[in-house]
Specification:
The protein has an 8-stranded mixed beta sheet with strand order 1-2-4-3-5-16-6-15, with helices on both faces. With 377 residues, it is an alpha/beta fold. The model has no long low-confidence stretch (mean pLDDT 97). The radius of gyration is 24 Å and the shape is elongated. Bound molecules: nickel (II) ion.
Length: 377
């Protein structure tokens, strides 16, 4: 199995495709599943797919659970120097989604081979477009995962050695919101500021004040952040511009903090703009919610990891986003970190994962899925 998964992983690594372009990737996964007699559901997804496995163990029908891998790559030019490096210029599996796909495919094959040992149904999602926060919603919209009682997934972790698994109860990845603001004054000659309304001082004041959302409005014991990442105003030295623009992101782990951050943001931007005599047009886009791990599933994962010879450690929080959270809305979810070795962080052009981590991780998800089904019976 390790050999088969490594071969598959290297194929996927050589053929990366970005979000919603994963046609070859989907074809490869479908072929592999179908060649083993595993049913692929008619989901209507253009890329990505949902497979279904039925246990044939003795006893009454057991519940449905979900297992999810993401399959998309990034628009990054690979510099890993690997013999199986990307053959698609400017595109790279720099976040290990090739590993996720191979690992969960391995779990699907093993669950299928061992189908007489368990009962119930496992829906296996190979999700497109995680990096652009689209795929999770697209899969949800098929309605095919509505009957899943819980969802399981994992992510590569470059900072952790092969053979380790990061697990932690509660929020582990952030809810991600994006803002875009235009402050509108009235342009004029730089020599006659009193003839217009300059949006630039308002911009400066707003940028400073926004940092008080975290530092003054929120409990200092929990992580959250406001980052302004793009600012624009004016085009030359002697003209006061009509508008000033900025955008950025707010990241929170707690749902109440998420609401509070948006409310304070609107108050600060609106109030400061008014004080400077400019208007503010605020665009607010809610991205995926925080990834929150179910405590019971974490306990189960630790036990199963031990049985599979994996060493568990405390998963680190990150303020990054993961649309796995979409699956875990209103039902238990578990998102673990898989130690995959390597020196460079995810999204780096020299990012690598050690294929030796494939089989242990696939075995872990196989055993975990069976343990979940036994519990849910
Ligand atoms: Ni990723």
């Amino acid at each position: 199995m390790q050999g088969r998964l490594t071969e598959l992983f290297k194929w996927l690594h050589r053929h990366p495709e970005t979000g919603l372009q994963e046609h070859e990737t989907t074809r490869k996964i479908r072929e592999t599943l179908e060649s083993h007699g595993i049913e692929v559901l008619d989901s209507g997804l253009a890329t990505g797919l949902i497979a279904v496995l039925h246990g044939e163990g003795e006893g009454r029908a057991a519940p449905v659970i979900g297992l999810r891998a993401d399959i998309d790559a990034l628009p990054v030019a690979e510099e890993s120097g690997l013999p199986y490096a990307s053959e698609n210029p400017g595109c790279m599996h720099a976040c290990g989604h090739d590993f996720h796909a191979a690992c969960i495919l391995g779990a699907a094959l093993m669950l299928h081979e061992r189908r007489r040992e368990w009962r119930g149904t496992v829906k296996v999602v190979f999700q497109p477009a995680e990096e652009i926060d689209r795929g999770g919603l697209l899969v949800m919209q098929t309605g095919l995962t509505d009957d899943c009682r819980l969802f399981l997934a994992g992510h590569t972790s470059a900072g952790m050695p092969v053979g380790t698994l990061g697990v932690k109860e509660g929020p582990v990845m952030a809810a991600v919101d994006r803002f875009e603001v235009t402050l509108r004054g009235s342009g004029c000659h730089a020599a006659h500021p009193h003839k217009g309304v300059d949006p630039v001082p308002a911009l400066g004041a707003v940028l400073q004040s926004l940092q008080t959302i975290v530092s003054r409005s929120m409990d200092p014991f929990a992580p959250r952040l406001v980052s302004v990442t793009h600012v624009e105003a004016g085009s030359t030295w002697n003209v006061i511009p009509e508008t000033a623009f900025f955008e950025g992101t707010v990241r929170t782990l707690d749902a109440a903090d998420r609401e509070l951050a948006e409310r304070r943001f609107r108050e600060i931007v609106g109030g400061t703009a008014a004080a400077y005599g400019v208007t503010a047009q605020i665009g607010w886009t809610r991205g995926s919610p925080a990834v929150v791990n179910d405590a019971g599933l974490c306990a189960l994962a630790r036990r199963v990891a031990g049985e599979c010879g994996l060493l568990t450690c405390l998963q680190e929080n990150t303020m990054g986003a993961e649309d796995f959270s979409r699956y875990a809305q209103g039902r238990p979810g578990l998102f673990v970190r898989i130690g995959t070795g390597g020196t460079y962080p995810a999204h780096h052009p020299k990012f690598t994962v050690d294929p030796q981590a494939l089989y242990p991780a696939a075995q872990f998800f196989t055993e975990l899925a069976m343990a979940c089904l036994r519990l849910e019976e």
